[in-house]
Design a protein that fits this description.
Helix content is about 45%, strand content about 15%. The protein is globular. The longest helix is centred in the middle third of the chain and has 29 residues. It has a seven-stranded parallel beta sheet, sandwiched between helices. It is built from seven helices and seven strands.
Length: about 240
Amino acid sequence: MGKFDGRRVVVTGAGSGIGYEISRLFLAEGGEVVAADRDPRSVPPGSFPVKVDISSPDEIDQLRKSAYELLGGVDILCNNAGIGSTTSILEATVEEWDRVFAVNARGTFLCMKSFLPGMLEQKFGVIVNTASVAGMIGLRDRASYSASKGAVVALTKQAAVQWAAAGIRCNCVCPGTVDSPWVERLLQQAEDPDAYRAELTARQPMGRLAEPTEVAKAVLYLASDDAAFVTGAELVIDGGILAS
C-alpha cells in the first residue's frame, strides 16, 4: 500500500530533473499523476502526459481541464517548472527578466489560481512549489532568477496564511545546486566545464551537488500526511549553503 494511494497529483516540469523524479516517486507510492511539460514525451511511464507552457493562462486552464478529465479532481499540485538565468542586473535584458518571471513566478501564480478553487471546494489540497536558495540569499549572476524565486517563496507564504483554515497547505522546497539538465547545459557552455563544476560544487559545504531524487523526496514529504501540520514552510535542501 502506497503513501499516496488515491491521491490525484499534478506535476509541472515533469519531463526531466526534479520534476521527473517527483512524478516517478508519486507513482511509486500509488499516486495518479498528470505529468505536465513543454515536451511531455519524456515524462515517467505510468503518468498522464500533458503538454503545457505554464506562462500561458490559456494553456494552464487547459491543463486544469485535462487533469480533471483524467483524474476527476486534483489533491496535490507541484509547481516545479522553471527556467534559469546567469546574469547580473547590468547584464540582464528586459526580455530575459520578463521571460524568467513569466515562467518561474507568473507560472506558479497561474497554476495556483487555476487549481485552488477545486481544492477549496473539496476542502482539501496540498501545494508544493519549487523555489531555490537563490530566492533567500544573494548569489552572483542570478538577478532575474533570484528575484523570481524570491517571489515564489513569498507567494507560498501568502497562500499558506490565506487558506490555512480552508484545508489547504502550501509549502516550498529551496534546493541548492542540483545535478540537473539545466546545470549540465551551463557546464556545456562554460569555457572550462571542469573548473565551473568544481566552483558550483564548492558552494555546498557538503562538497557535492544535490541529486534530483533528494529534492523530490522532500517534495513528497511536504505533500504527505506526515507534514499535516506544516504550511508556509521553506524546506531547504542545499548541502549547507545557508548555514555557511
